[in-house]
Amino acid sequence: MTRPASSEIRVTGLSKRFDPQPKVLDDVELTARGGGLALIVGAPGSGKSTLARCLTGVYRPDNGTVTYRLGSRGAVDLTAADARTVAWLRTHHIGSFDGLVAAPPRLPAAVAAARAARCSRSSAVAALGRFHIANLASVPIGRLRVSDRLAVSLAAALLSERPFVVLDEPERFADGEGLTRWLRRLTDDGAAVVATGSPGSPLHGIATATGELRRGKIQWRKP
Q: Is pTM beyond 0.85 here?
């Protein structure tokens, strides 16, 4: 699928806290443009998952904006959008890996991935094969280990062919080389990708922007 090069995710002044803790995110700034991959690394507990969930509408930030620019279709501020608009963005525009794929527990894993990605079962089986779990394609997703179910969720996010892709630590559930190839193909096709990862993430080599999340803020590194 060809995506408009003008696709962009722009985050300004993003803050999030969970009382009584201090801020998990504090005035975060981030831009991911079509054709590029913004990589945010950080130690465990640094707020990477919270950031990913704010970017996909699972969490609503306390302050700031998360704007999705949809080319000729205009822009949507996710933080101000109603529930229906958030669901529309997640269904049609955002390929998100920020938790377990929602599916009835008796649904076979490949069918669950295919439904989430809106693709064929054969494509889903092939994707699971790339993650070395094709043998789980016919297993009810409710019977899978959490790690395997998360791998199915990641496959669905990458299969979805959305103009925006937000992935929370995908390297934990896919081999680095295969993941890098897949994400390079998506960015070559014009997707705007944001991924979180560890400081030693295999995605450093294809990232167009890299920042470190520490004490709630992202320190962006110079190219």
A: yes
